[in-house]
Specification:
By secondary structure, the protein is α/β, with parallel strands linked by helices. 32% of the residues lie in helices and 14% in strands. The strands form 3 sheets. It has a 4-stranded parallel sheet. The chain starts with a helix and ends in a 13-residue tail after the last strand.
């Protein structure tokens, strides 16, 4: 297909998001520069659409269907997000039983939107989402090392198996990215996170809006 014809086609893949991006890894995930700012407060995306309090950061730790719209219509929400102090990049789901190609696609979408928001002047901290061990080969690509990352722990403590898998993924994230600051949305049990504190990593925790539903987490 000629370049002219390609330019006349509708951009169904949102290729404009990664114009001027640099890439990381064999699969070419867009690289994200981490903001030097630290969130003061956070608000979920669906609530951010209804508030006039912009002195906080937007997070996407919700069901995917609640924020899929930002991928389908990114330009529509750009000006809304720019009102806030910053954004944690989208938490598109990675499930262990999800085909690897879909896990990579959701990882790519996380990075592509983050890159574009940064290009448009938004402060961004990358969200890290991992699944099983197969995801470790790609799920940390495109994220700046020795910096700040954010993770969500909602639903990751409900069983011993989930807790173990979360701990293993967290260990691998620290090994590959060597972050100076880890922001946690949800719970951050001491038996999991104390070793990182002792290693000099700053742990910042924001309690989730759904914390009351997780009172029976495995301890």
């Amino acid at each position: 297909m000629s370049n002219n014809l390609q330019k006349s086609c509708k951009d169904v893949f949102n290729a404009f998001l990664v114009e001027d991006a640099t890439y990381d890894g064999y699969d070419e995930f867009p690289c994200v520069k981490t903001s030097s700012l630290i969130p003061n407060r956070v608000i979920t995306f669906t609530k951010a659409l209804k508030t006039n309090d912009y002195d906080q950061w937007v997070v996407f730790y919700e069901h995917d269907y609640q924020f899929e719209r930002i991928w389908n219509r990114p330009k529509r929400y750009l000006e809304i997000l720019k009102r806030f102090r910053g954004v944690i990049s989208p938490d598109f789901s990675l499930y262990r039983n999800m085909p690897i190609c879909m896990q990579k696609w959701n990882t790519y979408r996380n990075r592509a939107l983050a890159h574009w928001w940064q290009k448009n002047g938004i402060e961004v901290i990358p969200n890290v989402r991992f699944a099983g061990r197969d995801s470790y080969q790609f799920c940390f690509k495109g994220i700046e090392k020795n910096s700040t990352v954010c993770i969500g722990s909602i639903g990751c403590m409900r069983s011993k198996t989930e807790r173990l898998l979360f701990t293993e993924g967290l260990d691998e994230m620290v090994r590959q990215l060597t972050p100076k600051i880890i922001i946690v949305y949800g719970s951050a049990p001491n038996d999991i996170f104390d070793k990182y504190r002792k290693a000099g990593i700053r742990i910042i925790v924001f309690k989730s809006e759904f914390a009351s539903f997780h009172a029976k987490e495995v301890k």
